[in-house]
Q: What sequence folds into this?
């Protein structure tokens, strides 16, 4: 039994092709990821909306701070009074404002809630897609193919959601400031700061989206094909 | 045995599942040799261990003890990468529930294993269209699965199973979700492919239509092989089944 097995094994080895290649080209994986976002558009949208909201809040707060700093930089005592009246605590010697610790806490909380929402949404989506993942594994997909698809999908959702959220928050903040302070809010503004705030918000959203998908993606990727197939019953 | 090569060899395989505190023995020692190019059906009532044996042969599950050789390679020795490679290149799977990936068109479903196997996109598309023509879906390759009937979806699955010219096609109840006529068409298609391409077809089934085309039938009962019948002996037992029902 033992010797006949080893002889046979050698025979098989000489037959086997030298490179046992398994690949999922990046172009193809982007295509698949885009397709599954499109097909499950509504679900993707809901996943993304929590991100949009959290990121737009972050962007709103930062851009509003930029506006206040712009107004302060004018060194006009009238504007300073208007700012103080609208709720900013500005000491007489200060020439810039930051966000208050309380506000920062609220932002962090909202971002954490958002991540939990993303994790939940992806876990649900994962169970919905057990069969698809199992099938892919039966066709020869490696764990990292599945991981790659999940990460790509989340990355794209993250970029789109964070982009939309950051712009939305910034526009709303600018509009709000215009109503409150008038034209001077926009003319005194440093647009570079606004751009920086928006980019920062996009980056944060993108990273949060990837962080949120990490655990669900690992769960999905580690799944054995049999288990995945069994869930159909 | 000496003249024909064994593509699958199962020796002394047992499988025990741990269900809570209870141990369930799904397989209690199975020995089986399957010759290359054979059309083999695994028959047995549900709960007989048929699906478990089937999963072992497909490299989807590992035995508790005993060995499964595919093309004389012990699958217990393979790591995850090699197993995936085996699934990709050596084995084509067909399922009762078709398992066509819903978000992709028929053609994309068929090309996916080829892409995994490292073929470039244009070649894969060309071969995918050929395969879909082979299974009689030449004009529907851009359709999504939900635009195809059950029989057509199963044809896509057959084409997909053939994508990387596997040595073995494993079909788990391939006719289970199909009506009588469509089921017969799929069986005929599998038989034709097995003959023309010399592919070993192994199907787990309790569809007696399968018996007509099988070279060999393995009856599984209570986790072991009850009997193995070759084609020539089969007509007699088929009569028995007829009278039993």
A:
């Amino acid at each position: 039994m033992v010797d006949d097995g080893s002889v046979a094994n050698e025979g098989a080895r000489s037959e086997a092709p030298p490179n046992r290649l398994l690949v999922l080209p990046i172009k193809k994986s982007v295509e698949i990821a885009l397709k599954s976002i499109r097909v499950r558009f509504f679900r993707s949208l809901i996943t993304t909306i929590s991100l949009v909201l959290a990121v737009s809040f972050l962007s709103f707060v930062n851009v509003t701070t930029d506006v206040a700093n712009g107004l302060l930089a004018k060194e006009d005592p009238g504007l300073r009074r208007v700012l103080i009246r609208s709720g900013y605590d500005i000491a007489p010697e200060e020439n810039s404002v930051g966000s208050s610790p309380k506000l920062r806490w609220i932002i962090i909380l909202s971002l954490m809630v958002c991540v939990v929402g993303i994790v939940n949404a992806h876990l649900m989506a994962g169970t919905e897609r057990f069969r698809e993942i199992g099938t892919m594994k039966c066709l020869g997909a490696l764990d990292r193919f599945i991981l790659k698809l999940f990460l790509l999908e989340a990355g794209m959702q993250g970029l789109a959601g964070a982009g939309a959220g950051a712009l939305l928050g910034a526009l709303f903040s600018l509009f709000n400031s215009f109503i409150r302070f008038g034209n001077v809010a926009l003319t005194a503004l440093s647009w570079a700061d606004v751009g920086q705030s928006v980019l920062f918000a996009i980056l944060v959203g993108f990273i949060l989206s990837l962080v949120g998908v990490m655990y669900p993606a690992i769960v999905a990727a580690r799944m054995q094909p049999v288990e995945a197939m069994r869930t159909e019953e | 045995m000496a003249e024909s090569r064994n593509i699958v060899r199962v020796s002394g395989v047992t499988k025990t599942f741990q269900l809570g505190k209870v141990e369930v023995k799904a397989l209690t020692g199975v020995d089986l040799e399957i010759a290359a190019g054979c059309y083999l059906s695994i028959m047995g009532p549900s709960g007989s261990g048929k699906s478990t044996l089937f999963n072992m042969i497909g490299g989807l599950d590992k035995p508790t003890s005993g060995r499964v050789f595919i093309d004389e390679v012990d699958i217990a020795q393979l790591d995850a990468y090699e197993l995936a490679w085996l699934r990709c290149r050596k084995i084509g799977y067909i399922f009762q529930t078709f398992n066509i990936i819903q978000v992709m068109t028929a053609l994309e479903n068929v090309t996916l294993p080829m892409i995994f196997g490292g073929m470039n996109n244009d070649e894969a598309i060309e071969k995918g269209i050929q395969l879909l023509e082979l299974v009689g879906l030449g004009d529907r390759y851009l359709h999504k699965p939900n635009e195809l009937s059950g029989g057509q979806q199963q044809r896509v699955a057959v084409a997909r199973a053939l994508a990387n010219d596997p040595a073995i096609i494993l079909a788990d109840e391939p006719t289970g979700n199909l009506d009588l006529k469509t089921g017969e068409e799929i069986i005929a298609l599998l038989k034709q492919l097995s003959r023309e391409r010399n592919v070993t077809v192994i199907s787990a089934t309790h569809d007696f239509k399968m018996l007509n085309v099988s070279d060999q039938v393995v009856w599984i009962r209570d986790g072991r092989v009850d009997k193995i019948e070759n084609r020539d002996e089969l007509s007699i037992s088929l009569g028995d089944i007829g009278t039993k029902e």
Q: What stands out?
A: The longest helix of chain A spans residues 143-181. Residues 1-18 of chain A have pLDDT under 50 and may be disordered.
